[in-house]
Fold:
Amino acid sequence: MHVVILGCGRVGANLANLLDSEGHDVSIIDRNSDQFRRLDPDFRGTAIVGTGIDQEILRRAGIEQADHFIAVTNGDNTNVMAAQVAQRVFHVPRVICRIYDPVREETYRNLGLETYCPTTLGTAMVRQLMEKPLPAAGARPGR
Structure:
């Protein structure tokens, strides 16, 4: 499977390292070459400096053969624009886009993008943790 990842922050680098270690063909794009230091020393994929809305950069990353395109920069607008280019121009079979703003995430999902929102997911996880039984009164630190 060929995967193109936009954004080599914590999520992008971790995903690239994981997929590479599983034997997948991975290309990762970031505007800042310093971000590639997050990749494992034995990373066998391709790291490309550039923007994910530049069609020539996407072609260099192998977008035309990509099975997946994942946009995980820290900018919602960049992620959405790049995801739309991957989906509509290059017809990548699966395009996944991170959106921090829950209202915008729903809007873009309704427009046909596969999205996930760390804000919504984090809220749900914290709420689930709150439902766990509280420790016994005697087990509280400082009491």
The first helix runs from residue 10 to 21.
